[in-house]
Input
Amino acid sequence: MKLGLTHKEIATIVDGETVNNIDGNVDILIYDTRMITSDRSGVFFALQNKRNGHAFCQKAYDKGVRCFVVSEVVSLPEDACIIEVEDTLEAIQSVAKNHRNKFSYPVLAITGSLGKTMIKEWLYFLIKDNYKVARSPKSYNSQLGVAISLLEMTENHDFAIIEADISHPDEMSKLEEMISPTLGIFTGVGTNYEDNFESKKQHNAEHLKLFKHANITFALNEEYSALRRSKINAELTDIEEWSDFKPKETPFAKNLTLALFVATFLGVSKPELLEKVKLLPKLSNRLEVFEGQNDNLIINDTYNIDIDALEQSLEYQFSSDEREKKVVVLDLSNLSEERKEQIIFLVESYKPDEFFIIKDATIPKELKELKGVSVLFKGSYNSSLKKLVKQFKNRKHETWVEFDLKAVKHNIDIIQAKLQPQTKVLVMVKASSYGTGDVNIPHFLQQVGVDYLGVAYTDEGTTLREKGIQLPVLVMNTEQNAFDDITKFCLEPSIFDMKNLVAFREHLLKEGLTDYPIHLTFETGMNRLGFDAEDIPDLLNYLKDQNEIKVKSVYSHLADADNTDKAYTENQIQQFTEIKSKIEKAFSYKILFHILNSEGASKFGETASFDMVRLGIGVFGYTSTAKEDGLLPSMKWKTTISQIKTLKTGETVGYGRSYKVDNEINIATLRIGYADGFRRDLSNGVGKVFINGKLCPVVGNVCMDMTMVDVTNIDCQAGDEVEIIGEHIDMETFSKHLGTIPYEVMTSINKRVSRIYLR
Ligand SMILES: *Cc1c(COP(=O)(O)O)cnc(C)c1O
Output
């Protein structure tokens, strides 16, 4: 944002009375004192929001602001320029409109009930190599949000995408005046028009006011009559016309179609689009799935109560087998009788085991008593349900990790695209799927169609079976006293020496089992577990005249695949190729051969994927070449602040008093400690966390359950969210602080930290 205005110019633009005539320049528009940074001069607009902005004028002044737009009398020192107006929000809108009118490049506005942010982000992604695009941050689409979005425009851009939303009749004209869009996208109002509008027609017509002066508005064929009725100049398309891009295979076919349609109109070629579509960013409006209290699985979809979205959520709940019993909880307040009936009819058609409709924000007793079921919560964004869902969370402890399952799927797709087409995918889910939790990731992998799972030890395999995983499971490390469980749970042992081979066959003979699948592991340079090439003659001899054992696969493991010097790996692959040629000709049936792990698949996927790859860390997006390969990070780790304190010079922090205060500081105590996996090595500035826009170093020693960080000059309070790993502190950086690797970070997060899975 760069306003480049003088105090006088602002007064003119907002049509205000200046109380004193102090002139000066301002660059940034501020409506929240947390936005103030010392290096740029700002103008503070005192808005009448949840909090009355007039109470913050002095704070803004103290932080260096000298120009104020107010609608109440405020008293400030003499060197402040005070501009009085009737309505401060309208004043911001006037500044935004004035700013927008400085630019003559195209401004595309998006409105409708659903999908605006997704379409905006996707279109941006599709055209960003062809245009310098300014766009609304996040979902800034309200009366204030649109104004703030327009201020993003600068002379360095040549295209703008702005979202607009309305919740009441007669709101759109102001937005239209501010944005003056030259192009438009209308996403339709769907069935989601209940709130404050009389009818779908009225809702449509109000949205479409945005485009009355636009040159062209893009929409789907189904909006034809609405557009015609409002006399909008439109270009229409249909999902079918984009079949090359397979929109129907995504849950957001309409949004994708619109983004593609407009990108094509703006000159992006089809081949380019085909490439880009594979990499579309994933967005966060989605189902939240987590383990709740009483072993319930909670599916939280309290974003809206649109029928199409409800159907998707039900589809997900009833097609997943994570819990056998299905329960649906709805909040239908503020809906018309007709819509209520439609919704109830739809839910009943899925035949849930139990079905609750919440009234007056109270949770029925029966709902609280449920155990081991999956519960779908569905209600509009404003409904009481959003808060109620929180009570079902397994919140022993306000520290949690989030896993983005869409990123996981994306990563598998990206890696798979590199492999020879017939190659199968085994995902290693050892150590509770790299610390992500016992069964959610395996269930997800089963749903998205991976071929095999692998674990380290037998009990990890039995857990998978007990939780309903049916995929074949390879167990890397078995011993004789686990053989009973291996066959009882249909697990497939990996055998690494003759002694175990013989013992396992004896077990099969005793159980009367034949053709039982096993895997043979070979040494090629890892020097951990495995037969040597010299063992092959004995091995083949032993396996020749028996029918208890069937060799399902033969594999080896790479020791140095992340090294940019590929020589060692190439040598391992060479040895493995020789082992393969010796073994395969001795069997009349097909055996799967595999050697690549995630790093290996990234570097050798095109040439050495053999019949299968074994992926682990790559699925989560943390290989050494993740960025170049287009893998997405899938994990965030968060905690919260429990208390804030101010410490005076000379005081000390924590056990051992290892931090002494030089200058008065503010510290925050976080709900995370070394018992959670936030290791003690992070004490005294080695580790940092991210709070409300800033990095905060650890002060003192990390305790078992708590950690203190420096939050001097950071606007924060008890309860605020703290990022341990996420967008600002990535996994790589965090691992480096600890002198370790992502594998160890992921698997060291304690079980008491709750896990949330985003779909
Ligand atoms: C853990 C493991 C993998 C997966 O390794 P990543 O580096 O996480 O891809 C593959 N094979 C074996 C034998 C493993 O132990």
User: Anything to note?
Assistant: The mean pLDDT is 90. The first strand starts at residue 5 and ends at 6.
